[in-house]
Amino acid sequence: MVQGVHRKNFGRNQVLKPSAAYTPADEQEVLQILDRHRGQSIRAVGRLHSWSDAVLGDGVLLDLRRLNDVLLEPDGDQFVATVGAGCQIKRLLKELDRDGATLHSLGLITAQTIAGAISTGTHGSGRQSMSHYVVGVRLARYDASTGQAIIEELSAGEPLQAARCSLGSLGIILAVKLRCRAQYNVQEHFTESRRLSDVLDAEASFPLQQFYLVPWHWSYFSQHRREHDRPRSRLARLYRLYWLGVMDYGLHLPILFLERVLRSRRLVRFYFRRLVPVFLIRNWKVTDRSSSMLVMRHEAFRHIEIELFVLRDQLVDALGFAQEVIKVAGGGESALSADNQQRIEELGMQEALAELHDQYCHHYPICVRRVLPDDTLISMASGGEQDWYALSFISYARPARRAGFSLFASFMARSMSRLFHARPHWGKVCPLEADELTSLYPRFDDFRTVCNTLDPQGVFQNDWTAALLEADGHVGDIP
């Protein structure tokens, strides 16, 4: 046990101040810790690659990194992997690859633990989130009748749907069972388009694509992706070096220099208008393993991020609105278009927009990823008959200079949740109040019921999750 140790998250916007911290070696030790601290607040922590209040905890903290075993078993023509909660995704991918398997869905980051990834709805592009593929969760919690720590398997019904994206609110996740599939190859190439309609039309041919709206250039760069039965390209290794040197580092280092050192808005705009398009090699078609093609070194440089999910029929308006807000925030415009200005006035947010004016220059491409509806209770892509689209807004400003981004993130979350029913990512900057958040999820009451059943004393909550479970948000008109 360690006492008095403070830990910061990846983005350096959250500080954990636990009263006691443990790194248990096995499940039995987890149960012993729970029994020792019965009645106290207890939270598990992953690799802290989250910006929201979900990571916080001032009670007992469990770091489960030593629970990282991987067991892969055949399941018909696919596989099921039983994965220790603290196993990092990059280690899981290596273990699966030994047996010719991989995950159905992959996010950009592989540094996360599997329990942390599913608990906040981590997703990739073109398929459901990782949570959707969870078929079982092994959970440590307290028995309501005896008060003793026990282990329970959640494998069906609403308890499983809740555990697939739980915000750490049901108990301590010990292991996760995931549906996996045979390793496969992905073909990718870049294109550029001025029209969003062209990008969306390409989904039929490239269902795994993700695309970027480049600020100040205002065109769309698409990573056209699809499964392919061709073998790995001869130039795949060169393509990976191109990504590492040009995209993962070459694109980001100038952004860091412009934002953190020069602090020049004029040069930021020039960089995106004139230089960023030079980084991209269009129509270079390369085929490589999915576990190499679908990820990037997004964690290489410290940043902060808000991500908002909208349904497909809201995407065009939402991206147009975001573009206008970015221009106002950067000082290039003093007001939105007439239609959007009227919307803001109807929301009573004119003062918030005026406060944002000329306070923040956006300096990173807006990444857009399609996420198919999940079979969960409260993941961001849960429910609905349409596909969801995640719009990611990232800032590389130093922690001491994030006031402008905070204004921008707050305005975007508050306005887009009301205009487009946009849902903030649970694991990223999440500025909405508890009642506003819960109102975006038609099945939040079902999630609350499962939480109260499995953790009636609320010992596995922090202040933020407890407020969510106590909120009485009116469910919106989301299908």
Question: Can you put this structure into words, describing what you see?
Answer:
The protein contains 16 helices and 19 strands. It has an 8-stranded antiparallel sheet. Strand 1 and strand 2 form a beta hairpin. Helix content is 34%, strand content 22%. It is globular, with a radius of gyration of 22 Å. The protein is α+β, with helices and mostly antiparallel strands and 479 residues long.
Structural class: alpha+beta
Mean pLDDT: 95
Strand order of the largest sheet: 15-12-14-13-17-18-16-19
| Range of helix content | 25-40%
Question: What's the gyration radius in Å?
Answer: 22 Å
Count up the helices: 16
Cα distance, first to last residue?
47 Å
Give the overall silhouette.
globular
Which blocks of ≥5 consecutive residues have pLDDT under 50? none
In short:
With 479 residues, this protein is of the alpha+beta class. It is 34% helix and 22% strand.
